[in-house]
């Protein structure tokens, strides 16, 4: 077996609970928001929380990497004596964090899309609603969130290295 695949499996085992917990929180927040929207007959009551949850995904990989690196810091001697290059160790963490970001962001963006369709039915005319433009704007927003999240995760890694050097 490829040693890098072993690293991926290790990262998956370590972070599996974190991934399912965040997806569960996303679903729970959106279900509660949906129930409020039904109770008060106001689709914005579902849209705003789902938009906030989707926007918070910009910090997802940052938090994921910080928690993962904190876990590894407790066993730093194992990291220092592994024969794997640093690139492989870090890329396994980044790949698992990126995959979990995509899964969680997909679920969150799907709820946001459903909430926005409810807003469209109530507040917009069919003539002024351009569905293609809406989809393109949504994809651009999701891409921006993903890129910002990756950027912050790499910065977290950079600052973690500086912290370990200064320690």
Task: Describe this entry's structure for a reader.
The protein has helices at residues 3-40, 44-55, 60-74, 76-80, 86-123, 131-166. It is built from 6 helices and no strands. The chain is 86% helix and 0% strand. With 167 residues, the chain is mostly helical. 23% of the residues are buried. The protein is elongated. Keywords: Membrane, Transmembrane, Transmembrane helix. It comes from Geobacillus sp. (strain WCH70). This is ABC transporter permease.
Can you tag this structure with a few keywords?
membrane, single chain, 6 helices, transmembrane helix, 0% strand, elongated, mainly alpha, 167 residues
First and last CA, distance: 36 Å
> How many discrete domains?
1
Calculate Rg over CA atoms. Answer: 19 Å
Topology, number of strands: 0
Low-confidence region ranges: none
Can you tell me the overall shape?
elongated
- Report the biggest beta sheet as strand number plus sense, adding barrel if it closes: none
Structural class: mainly alpha
Question: Helicity range of the residues?
Answer: over 70%
Query: Strand portion, in percent?
Result: under 5%
On the 0-100 scale, what is the average pLDDT? Answer: 90
The count of helical stretches stands at: 6
In N-to-C order, the SSE pattern is HHHHHH
Q: TL;DR of this structure?
A:
The chain is mainly alpha-helical and about 170 residues long. Helix content is about 85%, strand content about 0%. It is built from 6 helices and no strands.
